[in-house]
Amino acid sequence: MVMKEVSKTFRVLILGISIAFLTSQIVSSAYAQGNNSAVYSKDSAPFGVPYKDWITRWWQWNVGIPTSQHPRDNYTAEKCTVNQNGSVWFIPDILTGKEQRPCTIPEGKAILVPLLTGECDTSESTSQSDADLRQCSTAGDEYGAISATLDGQKIENLDSYRTATDFFNISIVKDNIFDAPAGTYRGIADGFFVFLKPLSVGNHELQIKTSVTNPTTPSFNYASEGTYNLKISPKPQTENNITNKSGSLNTTMPNQLPPESINGSKVGKI
């Protein structure tokens, strides 16, 4: 009888310790990424797609734009809209200097912004094995100092957001910003990103800073600072909304008007 009671107490004690340990791990993980309510955590799946796969898509977007149209260099507000056709709006990186960049983004879009990232693929003759590619993709992301603020509020613990992708196929266009040979290759990427949840309609300011001081490979070193003046534009009023609003109006019309005039003419989608 005593042995049973002792065993029961022991099991309860172990269970209590296990729960406490798991709770502390969850709290520690949450603390590591800070109270960043405006950004997705790296273990999330925005719009049903894992976080790391959005980084894959960002890189596919990045190498899929010809140099003349690419928003990374010689930036313009018009270039910010190039090849933007999904639930997430991709922002280019800034590799040197200090810039202020305006960008108008439709309401409801998440925003993916690189702070420090690298990608390597089999287009490079020196990187063919998976081990070589993985090491190559991470090499330039070491010894970095990164920071970001959104509307004056610091985004905390960005070092904990470092993410590596799985291997993926990457299609590089002709005349690309990396002067890489055009074609489809096997690649992998790594890096630190700010992944913003959809922002409210209006004006927002995102400031990002990156510097790399690599003591072993100085060729990786650079410093940049960017301010993105983001204007979130409201969704255009759809035909559906117009039709719904007409329900509150007096729709008693003269008999000679055709029925379709009651609800108004069709409105093309913008």
Fold blueprint:
Layout lengths: L1 H31 L18 H12 L25 E3 L6 E10 L3 E12 L8 H10 L4 E7 L2 E2 L8 E2 L3 E5 L10 E14 L5 E11 L9 E12 L5 H7 L25
Write structural notes for this entry:
The protein has 270 residues and is of the alpha+beta class. It contains 4 helices and 10 strands; from the N terminus they run H-H-E-E-E-H-E-E-E-E-E-E-E-H. It has helices at residues 2-32, 51-62, 130-139, 239-245, and strands spanning 88-90, 97-106, 110-121, 144-150, 153-154, 163-164, 168-172, 183-196, 202-212, 222-233. The strands form 2 sheets. Strands 1, 3, 6, 7 and 8 form a 5-stranded mixed beta sheet that branches. It has a 5-stranded mixed beta sheet with strand order 2-10-9-4-5, with no helix packed on it. A hairpin with a 2-residue loop joins strand 4 and strand 5.
CA radius of gyration is 25 Å
Overall 3D geometry? globular
Which structural class matches the secondary elements? Answer: alpha+beta
Tally of alpha and pi helices: 4
> Biggest β-sheet, characterized?
5 strands, mixed
Unreliable spans are: 1-32, 242-270
Strand content: 25-35%
Measured distance between first and last alpha carbons: 78 Å
Number of domains: 1
Query: What is the averaged pLDDT score?
Result: 81
Count of beta strands: 10
Indicate the percent of residues in helices. 10-25%
Please provide a brief summary of the model.
The chain is α+β, with helices and mostly antiparallel strands and 270 residues long.
